[in-house]
Amino acid sequence: MSQETESLLRQVGAILDGHFLLASGRHSPLYVEKFRLLEQPPQTEELCRRIADHFRPQSVQLVAAPTTGGIILSYEVARQLGVRGIFAEKEPALSRSPERSEGAAKGEGEGFRLRRGFRVAPGERTLVVDDVLTTGGSIREVIEAVRAAGGQPIGVGVLVDRTSGRTDFGLPFFSCLTLDFPAYDPADCPLCARQVSLTVT
């Protein structure tokens, strides 16, 4: 199944080979461009079906995700499970308290919050989904937002796990594809040593 998933992602151009500058500042010969998948409804539907089928026995009542790509995944997984799909997003700067604004200025995470009138019923069994797992920060914040709203997170499903299974959310976890992408500090990057052109992601 993993080989089939990787083949599907490569067919739509979502797995790219080259020399990429990641958001972390590290360099990698591989990159997952999730939106090349999300622009293809049939392939997106297929991978969301794998997540939905995996968690179907868990009596999911709600699906939640972080923005931006997660919005599509939350909708589609929820549609296939016959439940609601919501999303969390970063709090706008104007609505932050002075304490939180000061924290953001110091480099602390802004946090994902449920907005737009989204509500979670007390104890509502919530599946958290996302596209590409890199550090897990966004997923953890959505889990906390669901808990703060009174919901019960029951699992995490992602399209691609770039951490090769090393991230633990303390919940049942499923990924359509698990990858171990090499990443290098710029000073130690063999692609830089070979003067391969760098692509900023």
According to CATH, the fold-level topology is Rossmann fold
User: What is the CA-CA span between the terminal residues?
Assistant: 28 Å
Global Rg: 18 Å
* Major beta sheet summary: 6 strands, mixed
How many structural domains does the protein architecture include?
1
Summing up helix and strand content along with how strands pair, one would put the structural category as alpha/beta
Structural summary, described in words:
The protein has helices at 2-11, 34-38, 41-55, 69-81, 98-105, 137-148, 190-193, and strands at 15-21, 27-32, 62-66, 84-90, 112-114, 125-133, 152-161, 173-178, 199-200. The chain is built from seven helices and nine strands, in the order αββααβαβαββαββαβ. It is 33% helix and 27% strand. Mean pLDDT is 90; it is low at 100-109. The relative contact order is 0.20. It is α/β, with parallel strands linked by helices and 201 residues long. α3 crosses α4. The protein has one domain (2-200): Rossmann fold.
List keywords for this structure.
201 residues, alpha/beta, Rossmann fold, three-stranded mixed sheet, 27% strand, globular
Per-chain topology:
Layout: H1 2-11, E1 15-21, E2 27-32, H2 34-38, H3 41-55, E3 62-66, H4 69-81, E4 84-90, H5 98-105, E5 112-114, E6 125-133, H6 137-148, E7 152-161, E8 173-178, H7 190-193, E9 199-200
Parallel strand pairs: 1-9, 3-4, 3-6, 6-7, 7-8
Antiparallel strand pairs: 1-2, 4-5
